[in-house]
Amino acid sequence: MNMIMTAIRSSVVLMLLCGLIYPLVTTGVAQALFPKQADGSLIESGGQIVGSELLAQGVDSPKLFHPRVSNAKYDPTASAGSNMAIASDDYVQGIADQIDELKKDNPKLTDIPADLVTVSGSGFDPDLSPEAAKAQMPRISRETGISEQQLAQLVDAHTKGRQMGIFGEPRVNVTELNLELIKQVKR
């Protein structure tokens, strides 16, 4: 009986420590030191939350930049990669289908950046390479009347460099870029 009581006391102490105290302390520290990130890196526009810097959103409008393809159809409850091998016939056909779809909206596109036709691992990659964003400029220019030169300046202004100067690749957050583009169109 003594061992059972010791086990119960240990379980209660560990549940309180690991299930209540530790999460509260880490959440408090995160809120104090990194409040924007702790709240989900939310993007606001006009006083309303329109998305997160961390999650891509589906875009159908030809007037806006399109993010990477998503196997999860941009449903945040269904994160999914394709898990297909690069050499599989299904993968090759999927890439060919994406290229065909991309060329419908961008008929003059010849040099296709890989991130415009490949799926990210999670299906929610919010960023594109600057080249992938710029590859969409002729379509957007045609649809909005904004010159490709102005669009290039917009992409360049929203391009983030490598983290700490050495990690990753330059990238553009599609949601933030589209919000700025919408402001440009309204002017």
From TrEMBL:
Keywords assigned by UniProt, alphabetized: ATP-binding, Cell membrane, Ion transport, Membrane, Nucleotide-binding, Potassium, Potassium transport, Transmembrane, Transmembrane helix, Transport
Keyword ATP-binding carried by entry: yes
In terms of superkingdom, the source organism counts as Bacteria
In terms of InterPro entries, this protein maps to: KdpC
On subunit structure and binding partners, the annotation says: The system is composed of three essential subunits: KdpA, KdpB and KdpC.
Give the family this protein belongs to, as stated in its UniProt record: Belongs to the KdpC family.
| Role, per record | Part of the high-affinity ATP-driven potassium transport (or Kdp) system, which catalyzes the hydrolysis of ATP coupled with the electrogenic transport of potassium into the cytoplasm. This subunit acts as a catalytic chaperone that increases the ATP-binding affinity of the ATP-hydrolyzing subunit KdpB by the formation of a transient KdpB/KdpC/ATP ternary complex.
Q: Which PANTHER family match?
A: POTASSIUM-TRANSPORTING ATPASE C CHAIN, POTASSIUM-TRANSPORTING ATPASE KDPC SUBUNIT
Query: What is this protein's name?
Result: Potassium-transporting ATPase KdpC subunit
Species assigned in the record: Paenibacillus cremeus
Q: Supply the gene name.
A: kdpC
